[in-house]
Design goal:
The protein has 75 residues and is of the alpha+beta class. It contains one helix and five strands; from the N terminus they run E-E-E-E-E-H. A five-stranded antiparallel β-sheet has the order 4-3-2-1-5. The longest helix is centred in the C-terminal third of the chain and has 17 residues.
């Protein structure tokens, strides 16, 4: 079953720190093709990522970012 559908707004974590807003343009076999909002450089193509790397809300993504920061403090 698909977690996301075409047209859904999602949030992607880049470099374990930055949260980027994107839109799903395709979903197949557990992978989503997304286009980042506000990025005019992408053109008609997008970026393909695993569904597990996407979050429905910015708050969900923030929880993961905080976990990464805490883990890095312990090192």
């Amino acid at each position: 079953m698909k977690r996301f559908n075409e047209g859904d707004v999602v949030y992607f974590i880049s470099s374990s720190v930055f949260i980027k807003k994107a839109t799903v343009i395709r979903n197949a076999s557990g992978f989503c093709t997304i286009i980042f909002d506000g990025n005019g450089n992408c053109g008609a193509s997008g970026t393909c990522v695993r569904e597990s790397k996407l979050y429905r809300t910015e708050e969900e993504a923030n929880v993961i970012v905080k976990q990464h920061k805490e883990a890095n403090k312990r090192r």
